[in-house]
Amino acid sequence: MDIYLPIAGMSVNALLIVALGALVGILSGLFGVGGGFLTTPFLIFYGISPTVAVASATTQITGTSVSGVAAHMKRRGVDFHMGAVLIAGGLLGSVVGAGLFRLLQASGQVDLVIGFLYVIMLGSIGGLMLRDALVALGWLEPRTKRKARRRHNKWVASLPLRWRFYASGLYISPLAPLILGFLSGILTVLLGVGGGFIVVPAMIYLLGMSPRVVVGTSLVMMLAVAAATTLVHSLTTFAVDIVLATLLLAGSVVGAQYGARLANVIKPDYLRLGLALMILGVAIRMLLGLAWQPSEVYSIVQL
């Protein structure tokens, strides 16, 4: 069943878009990531403008996060105190990201920059995830013997103004999660991603948060930041396609619930391996598209 997208200016298969939303929702529930790092490339592959894909993907992240937060709250897996600090940084980052996005639009190179950043981001993250998954499964020898992990990073421990985050079991400076939220906010606006693929590992390895609350807390941050980013795109870039966003939301809200359940059933190392392979596949596809397909380097800008 085809449906017309007014902002994108094209017809799409509605069931296919809903299925994409469901897949991203499952990933959100499993890993605490918004899923935009896969939604946006797939929409671009389908022929939708990168600008519209980025802006509409942020709307979907909002719905996915609502569903995922609800599922993790039932398991008491959310640190709202930590989430509030991350949100403060994320909102500030979204404002900065909006300014950068407008500058790129004015230069006519936003589509090229989005594609290039995605290749770098997905290639590096997918490679690291693949290696970690292979080591965890025992299929690859680690480079060095693992040392006992500190409660949190030395850099984080050196920051002033420490607060207690009881749900996470931490006594650290709020500056560290504030910076993480800021970077996530910029990424959400520029690339239509929730930033969870950066925030979640940073919560574990830099902040030393308990894995029990990492995913839920990440989703709380993404809920607020994605909602703010959607508003920013609606008021500045005018690129949010409400029909496309609704189709994505319809699938992602349901998918997030199943993802949260699967997280307690499937071995995490196999999930990480599958996600890494998917990310690398998308990165390779985008690289081929940048190298062979574009007939125009510059975007068309309406003055």
Task: Describe this entry's structure for a reader.
With 303 residues, the protein is mostly helical. It has one domain. It is 71% helix and 5% strand. The chain contains eleven helices and four strands; from the N terminus they run ββααααααββααααα. The longest helix is centred in the N-terminal third of the chain and has 28 residues.
Sheet with the most strands?
Answer: 2 strands, antiparallel
How many helix segments?
A: 11
Rg: 19 Å
Which overall shape is indicated by the principal axes computed on the Cα atoms?
globular
Alpha-beta content class: mainly alpha
By DSSP, the count of extended strands is 4
Report strand %: under 5%
Q: Distance between the terminal alpha carbons, to the nearest Å?
A: 35 Å
Q: Order of strands in the sheet with the most strands?
A: 1-2
- The helix/strand series, from N terminus to C terminus, equals EEHHHHHHEEHHHHH
Domain count: the total is 1
Can you give the mean pLDDT?
76
Q: Which residue ranges are poorly predicted, with pLDDT under 50 across at least 5 consecutive positions?
A: none
Helix content class: over 70%
Keywords: Cell membrane, Membrane, Transmembrane, Transmembrane helix
Membrane topology: Multi-pass membrane protein
Family: Belongs to the 4-toluene sulfonate uptake permease (TSUP) (TC 2.A.102) family.
Main location: membrane
Provide a concise account of the structure shown.
The protein has eleven helices and four strands; from the N terminus they run ββααααααββααααα.
